[in-house]
Amino acid sequence: MARNNGLDTPRETRRSLRPNFDPEAFGRLSERFARFLGTARFLVYMTFFVLFWVFWNFTAPIYLLNTDFVLAGFICRPTDPACTKSPSRP
Question: From CA 30, how far away is CA 25, in angstroms rounded?
């Protein structure tokens, strides 16, 4: 059986170690996400989130709002002068 190597004949696909990916997949995902941002469901979710956030900022105790120094203990060294400052107390 003769193999036809003409330019009008597509090559057979070869096996490759590179993964196959769809170049339009990111476009479809971003289009789906953009369409979701314009829905009433998203607006309702965002409204409840913002209302909860405002409520939390008005009613939460001050030690729960000031998490900078709690998180700084995990990030900073004890000898670092920027991390050893204590928060100002009223």
Answer: 9
- Do 69 and 75 touch, CB atoms closer than 8 A? no
Q: Taking the complete model, does pTM exceed 0.85, yes or no?
A: no
CB 36 within 8 A of CB 42: yes
Tokens standing for residue 77? 């060294």
pLDDT of residue 18: 78
Residues with Cβ within 8 Å of residue 31, at least 6 apart in sequence: none
Phi, psi of 29 (to 5 degrees): -65, -45
Give ∠ CA 51-64-74 in degrees, rounded to 5: 125
